[in-house]
């Protein structure tokens, strides 16, 4: 047994065994061996670390960026990107639209392009709902001269490349993980997109020189369990009813931080139940239409007091006008290269129709338009993040943005149904 085995494993005074006698030559020999082994071990470790740190293969070529339906390196797409982002006149804006193939993103991109602004789209074409619809929107945008780079806001390197290629005056940030109920199935996707992705975009924007103006989509869901009518921008928003709402509320706080520290001009828009042509299939008006036409039973939720759940349905054209009004009235950012030069504008607006409609009335209107009687199942509102009602106070948006919704629900649903029948009957003809 080695004398080292006699040393206690815990700290304390060590009293050597009386039978033990110190042998200087043996100690010297042991010390020499220990030194030799230590040297060899350190040499092997150093060689291992050097091999680990040195590249075993030549550096990889420049990352290839998937752009739209093509798969073209970003370097080869610069002409398309710059052409799309170039405004028709020197007074036009140059706008990056994230989530450009989404419902609101498509309509906003088209409106900006029609009036002469330069528009570059960014979208990752995820599978939250059928990407076929997103690809169809992309074709509409391409015909209008809007190029979409296929990628996500979580790819900071890609964002940096886009900002290096184009001097954006504005960013219309509409990319997000949407939907209230889906958050119970995939909560990570909401944190990934609505928080981490937003921070990525703000990080790249604050370092730009000059910094762009940021307009971004918050949500009426931030009002959460608020029972005060009407919902005003001054109301408390610290009681979210869903994770989706919580991530949008977090986005508003993050926006405040980047405005305060870096001088980014930021405007948040709280959308209230947007509907219309090219809409999202996960929205009630959309899948109600589909199921009523197929003769399927639809579920209509009621509040605990047996009243119908109500929403402040807002037609897409009105939302677009609000987005453009926010962009046009926004003041420039005050920072440069990540350094704040002075106070910057920070705003938040409700964009709603200010006339809540019971979901039961929505169904009645669809029955009238489709000329089909719906099969309904009435059930209590589940605890899945949905709230009983939404009702927007739009006084601030009317005053500062010139916002004035002009489409009532029946007129808007007629336009939606017309598009729906045209789009899906056309798809069936193509597939047959």
Please name the defining characteristics of this protein.
432 residues, alpha/beta, Rossmann fold, two-stranded parallel sheet, 14% strand, disordered N terminus
| C-alpha end-to-end distance | 86 Å
CATH-defined topology of the domain at 176-272 and 314-352 and 390-407: Rossmann fold
Q: Do you know the CATH architecture of the domain at 176-272 and 314-352 and 390-407?
A: 3-Layer(aba) Sandwich
Strand elements, count: 15
Given the C-alpha coordinates, what overall shape results? globular
How do the SSEs run, as a string of H and E?
Answer: HHEHEHEHEHEHEEHEEEHEEEEHEHH
Query: What value does the average pLDDT take?
Result: 84
CATH class identity of the domain at 176-272 and 314-352 and 390-407: Alpha Beta
Helix content: 40-55%
**Uncertain segments:** 1-72
Report on this model:
It is a single chain. With 432 residues, the protein is α/β, with parallel strands linked by helices. It has helices at residues 24-53, 74-85, 103-114, 131-143, 156-165, 187-207, 243-262, 284-294, 316-329, 359-370, 395-401, 409-431, and strands at 94-98, 118-123, 147-150, 170-173, 213-219, 266-271, 274-275, 297-302, 310-311, 314-315, 335-336, 339-340, 346-351, 357-358, 375-380. The N and C termini lie far apart (86 Å). 43% of the residues lie in helices and 14% in strands. Helix 3 (103-114) packs across helix 9 (316-329) and helix 5 packs parallel to helix 6. Strands 3-2-1-4-5-6-13 form a seven-stranded parallel β-sheet, with helices on both faces. Strands 7-10 form a two-stranded parallel ribbon. It has a domain at 176-272 and 314-352 and 390-407: Rossmann fold.
């Amino acid at each position: 047994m080695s004398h080292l085995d006699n040393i206690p494993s815990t700290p304390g005074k060590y009293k050597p065994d009386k039978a033990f006698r110190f042998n200087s030559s043996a100690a010297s020999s042991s010390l020499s061996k220990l030194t030799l082994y230590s040297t060899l071990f350190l040499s092997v470790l150093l060689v291992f670390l050097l091999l680990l740190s040195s590249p075993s293969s030549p550096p990889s070529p420049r990352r290839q960026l998937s752009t739209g339906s093509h798969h073209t390196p970003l370097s080869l797409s610069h002409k398309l990107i710059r052409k799309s982002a170039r405004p028709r006149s020197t007074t036009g804006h140059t706008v990056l639209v994230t989530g450009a193939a989404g419902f609101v993103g498509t309509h906003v991109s088209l409106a900006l392009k029609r009036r002469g602004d330069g528009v570059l789209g960014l979208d990752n074409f995820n599978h939250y709902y059928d990407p076929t619809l997103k690809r169809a929107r992309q074709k509409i945008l391409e015909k209008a001269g809007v190029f979409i780079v296929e990628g996500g806001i979580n790819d900071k390197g890609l964002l940096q490349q886009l900002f290096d290629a184009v001097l954006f005056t504005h960013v219309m940030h509409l990319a997000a993980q949407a939907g209230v109920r889906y958050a119970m199935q995939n909560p990570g996707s909401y944190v990934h997109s609505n928080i981490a992705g937003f921070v990525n975009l703000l990080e790249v924007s604050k370092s730009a020189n000059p910094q762009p103006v940021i307009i971004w989509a918050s949500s009426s869901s931030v009002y959460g369990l608020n029972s005060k009518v009407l919902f005003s921008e001054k109301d408390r928003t610290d009681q979210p009813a869903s994770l989706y709402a919580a991530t949008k509320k977090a986005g508003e706080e993050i926006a405040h931080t980047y405005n305060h520290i870096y001088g980014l001009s930021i405007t948040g828009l709280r959308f209230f139940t947007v509907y219309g042509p090219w809409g999202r299939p996960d929205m009630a008006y959309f899948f109600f239409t589909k199921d009523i036409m197929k003769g399927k039973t639809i579920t209509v939720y009621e509040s605990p007091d047996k009243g119908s759940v109500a929403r402040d349905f807002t037609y897409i054209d009105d939302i677009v006008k609000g987005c453009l009004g926010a962009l046009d009235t926004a003041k420039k950012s005050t920072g440069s290269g990540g350094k704040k030069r002075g106070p910057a504008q920070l705003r938040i607006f409700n964009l709603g129709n200010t006339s809540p409609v019971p979901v039961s009335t929505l169904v009645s209107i669809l029955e009238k338009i489709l000329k089909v009687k719906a099969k309904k199942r009435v059930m209590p509102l589940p605890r899945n993040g949905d709230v009983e009602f939404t009702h927007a106070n739009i006084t601030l948006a009317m005053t500062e943005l010139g916002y004035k919704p002009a489409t009532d629900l029946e007129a808007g649903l007629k336009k939606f149904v017309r598009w729906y029948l045209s789009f899906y009957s056309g798809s069936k003809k193509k597939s047959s």
